[in-house]
Amino acid sequence: MKLLSWNVRGLGQSRTVNRLKHMLQDVNPAVIFLIETKLQCKRMEGVRKLCGYSNGIDVASNGRSGGLSLAWKTNSQVKVRSYSNRYIDVIFEEDIDGFSWRCTGFYGAPEVENREASWDLLHSLDDMLDTPWLVIGDFNELLLASEKRDGRIQSDSQMNSFRTALMDCNLDDIGYRGQWYTWEWGRLSSNNIRERLDRGVANPAWWELFNDYQLDHLVHTFSDHCPILLTTGLNDRLRSRKQHFRFEAAWLLEESCEGEVLKLWNSCSGSIPDRLTLVSSGLELWFNKIKKEKKISVKALQQRLKELNDSQPSDEKLEEILETKLALNMEADREKIYWEQRARANWLKNGDRNTHYFHSFATNRKRKNRIRCLINDSNEEIQYEEGIEKMAMDYFSNLFTTQGVADPSVILEGINFPIT
């Protein structure tokens, strides 16, 4: 299951909505929590339905600030417990596995003078002791001074109040992968500030239920906050099954489709069933190749943006970050225009039909000692257990293997051997 939380900083422009839709299609989260939508409920409902999320709850903005939306497309039964302009609290009841867990999308007060009220709110929500509980969102506060670079020094009392609130509610930070910060301000190195304001926290019951997860800080092209994506059940293996061939309507939008069908049909001299089999398998390979080629440029831009975000900021790099974001936005806009020019129809909204499997561990020690990922010599992330085991075995095998004894004559040349 995937859950995405993002302070989008306004969805009033159609271009921004299109870029959000493009990103959600790429990541395909089952649950989304959007902060600072700056929209009234009716309009926000239209935006999330456009993005493929017909189920959800929206909280209206207060003028040009605030606004929340929590939406889902899962096999779970969702019960809304309560909500306000600072949070949306729901219970997910899994039909397949028969368990329930609690998720609270949280938006801490941006104003320092209202921060204590946010922690009082968190205390008031701590009313289901035995239920697995995840709180995710923009807390607008740091846990540690190391979560901020440049700008005004953060008040120790502010951070201590946040830490105390989490401790009182028995909530722990669940960590992250990717760039360390989630919020950035300033396009020049002289005024650039970076902070980690967005995070997920959970109680021990949630840790025990969702032992295998990761939270990623994603690259983004709009908003001063980055999306955070929680993925659970990483080691689940969906049972493979034979997929029946289905002709996709989207194939007709490709100019080379007709020629590809004719080429495949004429390349076989057998019976009609034989030709149909050849055409079906050939079309799937053909379209997969087209999709892969289209994604290459976008993936390269996303990788470059990630490298720039991880690097030490300078005026040149901040300018390149802006240019890379513009290029990614142009790709999203170009795809929208592509489909609008060739198909005068709405996108079909596909639900997330993944099956979820969860295993629980008894102690926090097992959770903390779990190796989720290793980086190999090619700087590639290895996440699967078989790959991690092989890397560990190879490392220690090489560590204790003699690589050959060097010729000692070079060292001995400078030593006198007196005869006594």
TrEMBL record:
Residues 4-225 form the Endonuclease/exonuclease/phosphatase domain. One of its GO terms (molecular function) is catalytic activity. Gene3D superfamilies: Endonuclease/exonuclease/phosphatase. It comes from the Eukaryota. This is Endonuclease/exonuclease/phosphatase domain-containing protein. It comes from Hibiscus trionum (Flower of an hour).
